Amino acid sequence: MVTIRDVAAKAGVSAATVSRIINGKGQATPETIARVHAVIKEMGYKPNVVARSLTSRQSNTIALLVPTISNPFFPELARGVEDSANSYGLNIFLCNTDDEREKVRNYLISLRDRYVDGVIVNSLNVTEEDLEELHSHGIPTVTLDRTFSSHKFSSIGVKHREGARLATSHLIDIGCKRIGIIRGPEDDSTAIQRLWGYRDCVKNFDWFDQSWIALGDFSVKSGYLCMKELFQRHPDIDGVYAANDLMAIGLLKAAHEWGRKVPDELAIVGFDGIDMTQYTNPPISTVKQPAYEMGRMAIEELLRLKKLDEHNWYAKKQELDVEFILRESSMR
Amino acid sequence: MVTIRDVAAKAGVSAATVSRIINGKGQATPETIARVHAVIKEMGYKPNVVARSLTSRQSNTIALLVPTISNPFFPELARGVEDSANSYGLNIFLCNTDDEREKVRNYLISLRDRYVDGVIVNSLNVTEEDLEELHSHGIPTVTLDRTFSSHKFSSIGVKHREGARLATSHLIDIGCKRIGIIRGPEDDSTAIQRLWGYRDCVKNFDWFDQSWIALGDFSVKSGYLCMKELFQRHPDIDGVYAANDLMAIGLLKAAHEWGRKVPDELAIVGFDGIDMTQYTNPPISTVKQPAYEMGRMAIEELLRLKKLDEHNWYAKKQELDVEFILRESSMR
DNA sequence: AATCCTTACGTAACCGTTTTCCAAAAGCGT
DNA sequence: ACGCTTTTGGAAAACGGTTACGTAAGGATT
């Protein structure tokens, strides 16, 4: 391996000079610069990133924490992050947390130890203290779909509640009289907002009560099981809003097994806008989140913070619009 | 940050001694060991992983290259790798290559520079020279579903051809008279093997010729488009084997739009065994690959190589069985 | 000509480990 | 008590960079 000292020797300068030239710091005569660059090229020198990390406490890497890559929404998000990061020459560390506190902790520690340059968090079980801790080490963060009251943390979210309202009111508009919801986990703030959006639209109907709410966990299977539950409780149900697309897909299967025609006897709307919803039978109406765009923005925000001095960090809270996509599952 | 020297000072020994004790190398009196450990605990000392990497040329990290995490098969595989890696205290670096040579190259270089301890490759566009290069830097590799003739590289694969035969012969068994295939990309060896398996079963029928083969790219959309193509070419088609599940899902939609009843007028079988196939309407028969298990085995193999001296590396080529799963899409 | 500023670059310390080599201490046999 | 081997642990040099500081040379200013 060729080191900076090898280059220095061959170019007849000191290692410090080579370092400065590489990093464009301090001055040097045009001749020296040219000579050093020539030698670098000739010897095929490449700075050792690990050694660099040791002194600079940076790693050219940013981390993305997601709850699971098994839900296609997250890969889409990850691509946004990755493409954008690559365009800046940054590597990304994709971390699957399964929303388990233990895994989150481990990742966070390991990431800090590796001097990651920033962390994008889209995962439950990350506390304000965790972010605080990263900040105290000079590591900026951006949360996705998680906001903390503190003004210190940047976040990017979408209008979940509004999206849920779009979905639910659409069901009402097409004539559904009894609308259920398959909600997401209780400790998930996005799930809660999506539930609220639904509530906003149905709370004044006299048929509405808690029993129209089924508790899912965002998996296909839970959508399937919850739908069966709803059928049992309310044979007269004629519309369902699933708080994410995977559950909507499971739900579709349950409807089929239960012998309900979609959309005529049961209208369905999902949430997320994953690709698969176009290909189900029938295709599922959904509220599309700009996943890719969110990923892109997260990187931008991280870089904005990086440029600032740690003490001047001021958080930005951004909220993106969602888009309702009408498909057969709710066309009457 | 507390360093090894801080610990040394407080314990009244040298940094070298602390290092030796931590790593269990060389000897020390039980008292010294106990004292050092006590101080480590008291001060909350944790070795700096970056500094460690610099000297040891290791990083406690292994990388996994996959073509895309958007195909649910790969997340499943990734989980196997990750869970297993975690149980050994290893971090994993998940790399999305999109099967682009450029990205593969960049990742490989970046990974080598970061002293990854091993690389698991399940991606096209990785050449024998790439692996050779990693080996020359002491980095062991395991390929997944890619085998090179050289005996130097360990690999884990599944019996694609056999799986394709299972699928195709099943279609024949249930009475299909005209069976098409939606194959995968031409440069993908697994796609080729799966095609062969199909050919093995149909080549002797007099109806068979090239026109029963449609060229897909393993995406849902391509399954959809290819099926339309097949319908146009062969209105009498009554069975299709899709070389992966995503394409089978796309195909299902095409069948529906074309007004063909599945399975009665068109029987369908996929490949991979992704979860989603259980939830389509109808559920899709498939050939299940032990994705999780493959991931697990890849780590095991990597660790086996790590323990050996680089010069003693002898490759193992393992091939796992697939399992045919019968579902409604091909039940008559 | 003396003074001061700038520029260009070298020296050496540093980042936090590991590891090689070596010396002191301890154990052992006689 | 004396050599001889084995333990135990320290000093210092790696690993491959960055950077604070210093200095010599050259130019401008008075």
Automatic annotation (TrEMBL), chains A, B:
Residue ranges the record marks as coiled coil: none
Residues in HTH lacI-type domain copies: 2-56
Top-level taxon of the source organism: Bacteria
Domain named HTH cro/C1-type: residues: 3-46
Pfam families noted in UniProt: LacI (PF00356), Peripla_BP_1 (PF00532)
Molecular function per GO: DNA-binding transcription factor activity; transcription cis-regulatory region binding
The keyword DNA-binding is annotated on this UniProt entry: yes
Gene3D superfamilies in UniProt: 3.40.50.2300, lambda repressor-like DNA-binding domains
InterPro entries: Cro/C1-type_HTH, HTH_LacI, Lambda_DNA-bd_dom_sf, Peripla_BP/Lac1_sug-bd_dom, Peripla_BP_I
Assigned keywords, A-Z: DNA-binding, Transcription, Transcription regulation
Name of the protein this chain belongs to: Transcriptional regulator, LacI family
Species name: Fictibacillus solisalsi
